[in-house]
Design goal:
- The protein has 437 residues and is an alpha/beta fold.
- Helix content is 46%, strand content 16%.
- The chain has 17 helices and 13 strands.
- A 4-stranded mixed beta sheet has the order 1-4-5-13, with helices on both faces. Strands 6-9-11-7 form a 4-stranded antiparallel beta sheet, sandwiched between helices.
- Helix 2 crosses helix 8, helix 5 runs parallel beside helix 11 and helix 16 packs antiparallel against helix 17.
- The longest helix has 17 residues.
- Bound molecules: uracil.
- Uracil binds next to helix 9.
């Protein structure tokens, strides 16, 4: 079919619908390099404003899958995958994937880079010297066979259209759209050939879904796509009104994930790891129910089996294991600015998006497509919502590379905190669940 991209952009801009054939031609054209970035960016922006119906979203997902190969993992038994829709300080994959693999369920994970103000697992893992995130499909399969876990980037052959669109959306303000997120996440899950997926749908200021209603809508869209492709899907809706855990920034988050694998993680990260891990084990049919799943995850933390699996993963992908054994060896920022409480008060709120944007300004994320990132920088929160901080006590440390924009980033972190003289309840982490059978 002759593709008139401008016409498709204009139709979507004006609120019209595209046929499955048109969507397929657009996506495959973009993937092949025939449709330029600027037209795809304009199209994505039109989708952000006008949305897509279920048939268009299904066609978009199917086209992304078709842009590359689809793996068959059936020889590994039931393979589970996990994905987060993106948040600030979300290092859950780094903890939960090795724990679940240590419990005997194969984990095949293709992760992404930072998107907008949210961090990305690949960028975090690259803080570990030598860690490769560019495994080929053959390497991916061989490693899954050998050690039962892979955490790598999307190979060039898997949903390549999503890989390209993802990088484009990151720097064109076109991330927050239910059809774009749902198709992006699910195309990867379908292409990778997992049998079940546990999705963490983040809700709040530090997420692309700002309220529970839109998070539910996104969850339903992803479950519907999964079911149509024969995947078991669980979506946990979780709070992102404040960053997850204490660390935000690549090296800092690796260190926190390692602490969590040693059973010394912050309470919210540990809770989320247990919930997601238990569900992954249920979906992999390794345990009867979530109680048994929680027990298995706790055991894998206490025995050190999860940490050992993480070490094995890092070694298998060429990473410097000495950094895992001694996180003090991870890249460290040359300067740390401590923020102290001007008066004794309770933390009433921590704007997760502002902490995320401050981290991007510090160099921990990208302002433009392809920008290099600084793995050393970021923020460590010493207080979370509900904590009482005494006057003069530090409530956050900002890890700085010594760049001109540092002062603005520090001010942003300071302004991200809201204070109250009255006691403030802690936030609920798990807000809901939508799942296929
Ligand atoms: N994660 C993805 O893989 N894609 C998105 O669009 C957002 C989060």
């Amino acid at each position: 079919m002759r593709l008139r991209v401008v016409e498709l952009i204009e139709r979507k801009r004006d609120g019209g619908k595209l046929s499955p054939d048109e969507i397929t031609a657009l996506v495959l054209g973009y993937s092949a390099g025939d449709v330029p970035d600027y037209q795809m960016a304009a199209f994505c922006m039109a989708v952000v404003w006008r949305g897509m119906d279920a048939a268009e979203t299904a066609a978009l997902t199917a086209a992304m899958v078709r842009s590359g190969e689809r793996l068959d993992l059936s020889r590994f038994g039931r393979v589970v995958d996990k994905h987060s829709t993106g948040g600030v300080g979300d290092k859950t994959t780094l903890v939960v994937a090795p724990l679940v693999a240590a419990c005997g369920a194969p984990v095949a994970k293709m992760s992404g880079r930072g998107l907008g103000f949210s961090g990305g697992t690949l960028d975090k893992l690259e803080s570990i010297k030598g860690y490769r995130v560019d495994l080929t499909t053959a390497e991916f399969l061989a490693q899954l066979e050998r050690i039962g876990i892979v955490v790598t980037g999307q190979t060039a052959d898997l949903a390549p259209a999503d890989g390209k669109m993802y990088a484009l959306r990151d720097t064109t303000g076109t991330v927050p759209s239910i059809p774009l997120i749902a198709s992006s996440v699910m195309s990867k899950k379908i292409a990778v050939g997992a049998h079940a997926v546990v999705l963490d749908v983040k809700v709040g200021s530090g997420a692309f879904m700002k309220d529970v209603r839109s998070a539910r809508e996104l969850a339903r869209a992803m479950v519907a796509i999964g079911v149509a492709h024969g995947l078991a899907v669980t979506c946990e809706l979780t709070d992102m009104e404040q960053p997850l855990g204490r660390a935000v920034g690549n090296s800092l988050e690796i260190a926190e994930a390692i602490a969590a694998l040693h059973g010394e993680g912050p309470p919210d990260l540990t809770q989320l790891t247990r919930v997601a891990g238990a569900e992954m084990l249920v979906r992999a049919r390794r345990v009867r129910d979530s109680r048994a799943g929680l027990g298995a995850i706790d055991k894998a933390i206490a025995s050190g089996a999860g940490f050992a699996k993480f070490r094995e993963l890092v070694a298998a992908q060429g990473g410097d294991v000495s950094m895992v054994d001694d996180p003090a060896k991870l890249p460290r920022a040359p300067h740390v600015q401590s923020l102290q409480a001007p008066r004794t008060a309770y933390v009433a709120g921590i704007a997760a998006d502002e902490v995320g944007i401050a981290s991007v300004h510090l160099g921990a994320g990208r302002e433009k497509k392809g920008d290099p990132i600084d793995h050393r920088t970021g923020v460590v929160l010493h207080a979370k919502v509900g904590d009482r901080v005494e006057r003069g006590q530090p409530y956050a440390d900002v890890h700085l590379a010594g760049k001109p924009g540092d002062a603005d980033a520090i001010a942003m972190v300071r302004e991200a905190f809201r204070w109250s003289v009255r006691r403030v309840p802690r936030r609920r982490l798990v807000l809901g669940r939508i799942a296929s059978r």
